[in-house]
Amino acid sequence: MFTRQPTQLFLKSTWHLPKLALGARFLSRTTSPSALPGLNRTAVITGASRGIGRAIALRLAHDGYDVALNDLPSSSGLIDELSTIIKEKTGRKAVTLTGDVSVEEDVRKLVDGTVEGLGGIDVMVANAGICFTKSIADTTVKEWDKIQAINGRGTFLCYKYAALQMIKQGRGGRIIGASSVAGKQGWPYLSGYCSTKFVVRALTQSGAQEWAKHGITVNAYAPGPIETDMSLGINGTPEDIAGLVSYLASDQAKFITGQAITIDGERPRVAVVTGASRGIGRAIALRLAKDGYDLALNDLPSNQSQLDKVGSEIVEHIGRRALVLTGDAAVEEDVKILVNKTAEDLGGVDVMVANAGIAVIGPLISQDTEAWDNIVRVNLKGPFLCYKYAAAQMIKQGSGGRIIGASSVAGKKGMRTIGAYSATKFAVRGLTQTAAQEWAQYGITVNAYAPGPIETDMKDVAGLVSYLVSDQGRFITGQAITIDGGMIYE
C-alpha cells in the first residue's frame, strides 16, 4: 500500500489473458464542442421564481454566474426577492425580466435584456413548464394547446434565441432544457405533459447536432417526482436538479450533448478503480484522488509498473493513500480479494468503478467462439463480479455507495465490426439498470458512463464519474450517460 512514506503491498494473483490494449479506438471521430474559454459567467433561468428554477438560479450564482431571472409577471415579487438574495448572499449580478416564454417577442426581449444587462449569454436553462392531470378523453383542446405552447414552443423559443446569441458571440455555450421521466415513458392521465417532454428530448438532440459546430452543447434534465418518496428511499429535491445543471454548465461537461439525463434516485471517501493503469481508468483514479478519495488501484499483473506510477503520483502529488492490487477483474477470487483488501486496508468501499475492458475488432462471421467468450468474460463477467462484491461490502457497511460501470456508445447502438464488444456494452447497461433497482433500498446508486471514441479527453469521463459519486449525483441511478459530443442518442 502507498502511504505518505510509500511502502508497497502487492497482491499476487494469477491471470489468464495476454497484455490488453485498453481504450482501443473503434468508432469514427466526432466533432466535439470546443471548450469554452475560462468559465461561463452569465446564465438565464426561466421559471425561476420557485422550485427547480429557483434552486438552479441560486446554485449557478454560487458557482460564479451572473443570472437573468425570468418568470410570468404574476411572479414578479418572487423573482425580485430571489434577485435580492442572490446579490446579498453571493455578490453576483442578477436581473429580473418578466415575460411568457411561449410568446416569441417576450423571449426575444429576455435574451436582448440579458445581453444588455449582463453582457452576454453563456448558459440558457429553459426550465419553465406546466403540468395537468387528465385522461386523454377529458382533455380539452384549450388545455392541450396551452401545455404545448408553454412546454414545447417555449422551450423551442428559448433554445432558438439563446443559440442565435451564442453563435453571434462566438464563444460557445450551454443550453439546458427541462424534460422528465415522463419524457421517456408515457403515463396515464399525463398525455399532454408526456408528449411535451418527449418533444423536449427530440428538440435537445436536434439542437445538439445543429449547434455542435459552434461549441454549443444542448442537454436536458429528466427528473422524477421532486419532494416525494422515490425508489432510493430518499426525497428528491430541487437542489438535486440544480447540481446536475451546475455540472452540465461546467467545463467538465463540454463533451456531453444531446442527452436527457434522468434524476430519480454523504460523500464517499474510498474508491476502487479497475483497469487503472492507463487511459480512462488512470484519469478517473487521479480525478477521484483530487476530489479527496483514497484509492484502490487494480489492473493485470503485466501492468504493475504503470499501476505503481499511478499510485506514486496519487501519494506524492495529491497526498491521498493508494493501495495497489493486481489481479484479473473477471476472476471471482481476485475480485473478492480486491474488495476485502480495500476494506481491510482503507477502511471500506464507497465507490466501485468497474472500468476494465477489452475490444475485439472484426466481422461477426470471422470471430471464433473463444474470442467471443473472452470478451464476454472480461467486459461483462468482470463488471458483474465488481458490482456484486462491491454491493455486498456496501450493504454490510450500511452507508450506501456508488457503483459505476463502463458502457459505451456501442452499448446504445450496434455497430459493424465490433459486434461482440457492442453486445457486452449493451449488457452492461442492462446489468446497471437491474442493479440500480435491486440496491436502491440500501442507498446504493448504480450508473455507467458511455463514451464515444476516446480520443475524447479522458478528463471528460473522469469529470462525469466525479459528479456521479458526489453528493450532487445521489439521486441519479440506473443511467448510462453518453459522452460523445452528440454522436449517438437514445
Structural notes for this entry:
By secondary structure, this protein is of the alpha/beta class. It has 2 domains: 42-254, NAD(P)-binding Rossmann-like Domain (Rossmann fold); 270-483, Rossmann fold (3-Layer(aba) Sandwich). The protein contains 12 helices and 14 strands. The chain has helices at residues 51-62, 76-90, 104-118, 141-169, 191-211, 238-248, 279-290, 304-318, 332-346, 369-397, 419-439, 458-468; strands at residues 42-46, 66-70, 94-96, 123-126, 173-178, 216-223, 260-263, 270-274, 294-299, 322-326, 351-354, 401-406, 444-451, 480-483. The strands form 2 sheets. A 7-stranded parallel beta sheet has the order 3-2-1-4-5-6-7, sandwiched between helices. Helix 7 links the parallel strand 8 (270-274) and strand 9. Helix 1 crosses helix 6 and helix 3 packs parallel to helix 4 (141-169). The two termini are 42 Å apart. Mean pLDDT is 83; it is low at 1-39 and 226-234.
Give the SSE map.
Blueprint: E1 42-46, H1 51-62, E2 66-70, H2 76-90, E3 94-96, H3 104-118, E4 123-126, H4 141-169, E5 173-178, H5 191-211, E6 216-223, H6 238-248, E7 260-263, E8 270-274, H7 279-290, E9 294-299, H8 304-318, E10 322-326, H9 332-346, E11 351-354, H10 369-397, E12 401-406, H11 419-439, E13 444-451, H12 458-468, E14 480-483
Parallel strand pairs: 1-2, 1-4, 2-3, 4-5, 5-6, 6-7, 8-9, 8-11, 9-10, 11-12, 12-13, 13-14
